[in-house]
Design a protein that fits this description.
Oligomer: single chain
Helix content: over 70%
Structural class: mainly alpha
Largest sheet: none
Strand content: under 5%
Number of domains: 3
Number of strands: 0
């Protein structure tokens, strides 16, 4: 960053300075995405679909959730971190309730607060245990009664697990040191003006509508009439995802700390934090989709095995980052190919797309929290299996 600042002051911003300011990880992500464009046409179709799904199934809902939170903080002249710090005894149930909300936005918000040093590790376990990710929308649309019951169960199990973790290890276990979090920019400075943010806002609104309709199994392309042959939903999803990817990876000032600085207002914070999440969700979607494409693994065939192993397999699939595998599990349950015990185990063990930013910002805590969530998942899944199936 120093190289870029010096270059800006002297008017000599060289490509070397810019590359150093971006950092090695951003350059790796950029080169990897460019390299993927060189694969065959069939794989390119898989890549385009994965990138669009990352945006329409995750990013738009993360943006909506974070936008509500940051706007509330701004209007109420408060900070969620301050509120959570003031009511420490309620951190775990609040985290669990946010995780139980359909989608990954609430879980991402909790993970962000944990990285800010506000929440206990038990709160992270609570939110990752309670969240079902974007598969929740699919279940809610197909079986609303079952969906609401699983959300409530996730909140209860998450709260219980979180309190047990904090009671066992103490509230300072794996606590992140609080970073400096400036409430405003230094005197004389102004928020960075990014001309791409208005375009980002123009895409996010129809993206949210299309994403919500898609989760309700609506053929969104058909809504465009004769333009449906051009796959407008895919085009918008790819455009929104690449815009978010480019805004984060090509901006030297964007770090691995979305939402820490409150400068710039709720809109700027929402854009920057959503772009950060989008990058890692795209990475996760591509790894999963390309992995299954080239390996030929069929999760439906994997689950077509001896019944007592199905809950365990569903729990293990829940360890996979992202919502793609979990949506597959929920689809199998809705179609009758998987018993409810498997759906319960997967719903509790899976962390949705919140695991991507968690791995990026606090990898050790993410791994440990995921392993801890397996215990209640196995207990609930096999408890239901033994009693009712």
């Amino acid at each position: 960053m120093t190289a870029l600042v010096v270059g800006a002051r002297t008017g000599l911003i060289t490509s070397a300075n810019y590359a150093r300011a971006l950092g090695p990880w951003k350059l790796v992500l950029l080169f990897a995405l460019v390299a993927l464009t060189l694969v065959g046409p069939e794989a390119r179709g898989v890549i385009a679909a994965a990138i669009a799904d990352a945006y329409l199934q995750v990013s738009v809902f993360v943006a909506a959730t974070l936008g509500v939170i940051y706007t509330f903080e701004s209007r109420m002249k408060t900070d969620l971190a301050v509120v959570l710090d003031r009511y420490r005894a309620w951190q775990v149930p609040i985290a669990a309730l946010l995780g139980a909300l359909p989608g990954c936005g609430g879980a991402v918000a909790v993970v962000t607060q944990y990285v800010r040093g506000t929440l206990t590790f038990g709160s992270v376990v609570a939110v990752l245990t309670a969240t079902m990710g974007d598969a929740a929308f699919l279940l809610l649309a197909a079986e609303p009664g079952t969906g609401i019951a699983i959300f409530a169960l996730g909140a209860i199990v998450g709260t219980t697990s979180g309190y047990i973790i904090d009671w066992t290890h103490g509230t300072n276990f794996m606590r992140v040191a609080r970073p400096d979090a400036p409430e405003s920019l230094p005197l004389g400075d102004a928020p960075r003006v990014n001309p791409l943010r208005p375009i980002w806002a123009v895409l996010i609104v129809p993206g949210f509508i299309l994403g919500a309709l898609d989760l309700m199994q609506v053929d969104t392309d058909a809504l465009f009439g004769p333009l449906a042959v051009y796959e407008p939903t895919l085009i918008l999803g790819v455009a929104g995802a690449l815009l978010a990817f480019g805004m984060w990876t090509l901006d030297p000032e964007q770090k691995f700390d979305p939402g820490i600085c409150r400068a710039g207002g709720p809109f700027v914070r929402t854009v920057d934090a959503t772009n950060f999440v989008t990058v890692w969700v795209i990475v996760g979607f591509l790894v999963y989709e390309l992995g299954t494409h080239f390996s030929g693994i069929d999760l439906a065939a994997v689950f077509n095995t001896w019944a007592p192993l199905i809950p365990l397999l569903a729990v293990l699939v829940g360890f996979l980052p992202g919502c793609g595998p979990q949506i597959v599990v929920t689809t199998l349950y809705i179609s009758g190919a998987m018993p409810l015990s498997g759906q319960l185990g997967n719903a509790i063990s899976n962390d949705g797309d919140a695991l991507f930013p968690a791995i990026a910002m606090a990898p050790r805590a993410a791994v440990v929290a995921t392993l801890y969530s397996a215990v209640p998942a196995i207990l609930v899944a096999y408890g239901y299996f033994l009693m009712f199936e």
